[in-house]
Amino acid sequence: MAKRHPSLVLLSQDHHHGLALALRLRQGDNALLTDGWTHDRKEQAKHVQGFYNEELRWHFKAEEDALFPQMIKHVSASSSLIESLISQHRQLEVLVRRIGSSSGTQLEESLVSMGQLLEQHIRSEERELFPLFESTMPSDVAEQIGSKVKGIHAKQTLQERAREN
Question: Looking at domain 6-28+35-164, which CATH architecture does it have?
């Protein structure tokens, strides 16, 4: 990934984790198993749900509360892209719920669909939205966005620590 504006670094790091998951989901039985990943689709489903609860829902919140409203306000050309990205957030949430209640062929299809949509979504943000942000967002607004994203990530970290204790 390209070097990102400091306000986008945490979101871009999240994207890295999301792309790794998307790749494994799309690869299915061909995924490498060097890091604890499994070919067992039920275990993958548990992993997807954990990833959503621990990372993805916070990531969506950071984008929808901090980034997207300011992009629409300051970069009118971003509104249709953001509308599409929010729609993808909802589609991904539906897939996570479906994965949690599926088995057999439906689970297999849902996991692959999740991997495909997650990758497409991340690539759109990294290749379209973030460059638009970096080329047009006023620096003072960009800093405010970065602070808000950091605050949301800090809440996520606190909740993770609370669960561990």
Answer: Up-down Bundle (1.20)
